[in-house]
Structures are given as structure tokens and as C-alpha cells.
Amino acid sequence: MGYSKEAVHEAKKKFDTRKSEWERKYEGRKAALYTVLPEVKEIDEELAKTGSKAAGIFLARKGGFESEIKKLKAENEKLIAKKTELISSNKLFCNMEKERYYCDKCKDSGYIDNKRCECYEKLIKAQMCERLNSASALKLSGFENFSLEYYSDELKNGVSPKRVMAGIFEQCKKYAKEFSLNSGNILMQGNTGLGKTHLSLSIAKEVIEKGYGAVYCSAHNIFDTIEKERFSASSGSERDETLRALLECDLLVIDDLGAEFTTQFVAAAVNNIINTRMLTGLPTIISTNLSLKEIEKNYGARILSRIIGEYKIMSFMGSDIRWKKAKN
Fold first, then answer.
1. What is residue 8's predicted lDDT score, i.e. its pLDDT?
2. How many helices (H) and strands (E) does the chain have?
3. pTM reported for the whole predicted model
4. Which helix (H) or strand (E) holds 288?
5. Most buried of 62, 140, 237, 287 (most Cβ within 10 A)?
6. The pLDDT of residue 234 is above 60
7. Crossing angle of helices 118-133/241-248, nearest 10°?
8. Residue 195 to residue 169: CA distance in whole angstroms
9. Residue 180 CA to chain centroid, in angstroms?
């Protein structure tokens, strides 16, 4: 599976912009360093002459040029040691070289051994997440506008819907606040209009604001997209790019599982996504109107077993709050 040209192109633009910003930042600090420690500037100027000095030794073609090169190397090592000592003794600039690059692994080249560095890969994945989230209502839902007033205090089978939903609300806020790549999986289960979409959107929104790559998608739209990509005429880099984003994003939120037209392909895709993300330890949130028996019927006993064993099941209670809002 590959990335689309558009995602890579946009990520490359962001990578280059970030690289330029860090270079400008470093050059600014270096100019300030030269002002405070002019001796460092003199050393850098002397080190910059190394290439021409070495070339001069070779061009002279005198005997014993190897000893001359060795001598030049020793002189440079002394200059570098002196420069390091001068900088390390200054509190303002002692960490300057350590903070030279955004990514010290690839030195902001984007590649290590001709393979994309993880810092570059992260930008591409973030771009994929941004594209997939562009059509969602992430900006419209948040914990701050979720209200418990639409849930009844009246006991139902000895339980108050408002009390149950207050507990779920707090659990969701805690999950978002403490989110990490080690966070667990959640199944939000219940009838239509009980707030599953609102709370899953709220989690995704806060996780994205924390800097993680989260993807929020409706089951109906996303499986349709995956199927079209799989069976499209193109076999290039765009084939399966959406599936790859779903498998690799930091947090995947699938909303309204069961609303899609369930085919053999869709059932296999659900199995693939849930199993792969469990194996890689990446957290997933699923909301559904389906009962556990209906999940088993649609996607198989193995997926039901995975969900029961690996997902925290939140059972939403109450009456359709959309109708209550419409009446007010």
C-alpha cells in the first residue's frame, strides 16, 4: 500500500517549510553567537578553508602529502575542540548544536539510508488524516457543548440514564485527556440519537489538538471509499491509500458501524482493520447501533470475540435527544 501523490506533495511542502524555518532559526542563533563570541567566527572561517587547503596540497604534488593532510586534520581537530569548549561554557549557546535540526536522526534531510525518516512519514500520515477528516464535523462537536440535561433522571430497570451518561461523559473526557498510543479501545453502543457521534467526535478533536494523527470517519462513507480504491482501474500509489491511513493512524474512530451496506468485502475490511490495529497496539473507537448479536451476525464470531475481549464497552442510555432538541 502506498500514499497518494497529493498527500506526499503536501507533506513535502510542509517538510521543506519546517526545514527552512529551522535553518533560519539556526543562522539567527549563529549570528548572535558570533557577536558574543567572535573567536568562534574566526574558527569557523578557518575551518571553511580546509577544502581549499587540502586541494592545494594535492595540486602541489609534493612528496609526503599524506603527512601534510594528517597535519591539517590534527589542526582542524584542535580548532573544533576549542570551538566546542567556547560554546559549551556559554549558557545561552551551550545546546545550540544539539538543537540545530528538527530531527536529529536524519539531520532534516528526510531520509536515512535512502528510506524516508519517521519524521517525514509522520507528516505524510498527518496529511492523510487531514484529508480524511476534511468532510467530518470535528469543528462542530466538543466536550464543552455536550449537555446531560436531555437525559432523564427517571429510573429504568433500576438505573438512571442521566447517571449512566454522566459516567460515560467523564470516561470519554479522561480518555481524551490522557490519550497515548497505549490507550485502549472503546465500543460505544446504543440506539440512535444518544450522543455516540458527539462524544466520539469530541475525543477525536481533542486528540488531534494534542498533536496525534487521528482519523474520524463514518462507516458508510469509508468502506465505500476503500472498496472503490481497491477495485479501481489504477494500480498506482493511490490504491489502498485510505485503508493504509486507517491501519496506521494514531487513533481511528469509526462512527455508526452497521449503517454501511454489509458485503463480504466490507466484513473482510472490518476484520482486517480491527485485527491489524489490535496487533500493532493502536487504539480504535467504534460507535454502533448494533447489538452484540448483530455485530456477530454482520462481521463474524471472531470479531465479536475481539471486541468483547479487547474493547471497553460503553452502553449508552436514554431517549433520542435529537427529538428533544427539535421540540425545544
1. 81
2. 13, 7
3. 0.68
4. strand 284-288
5. 287
6. no
7. 110
8. 10
9. 11
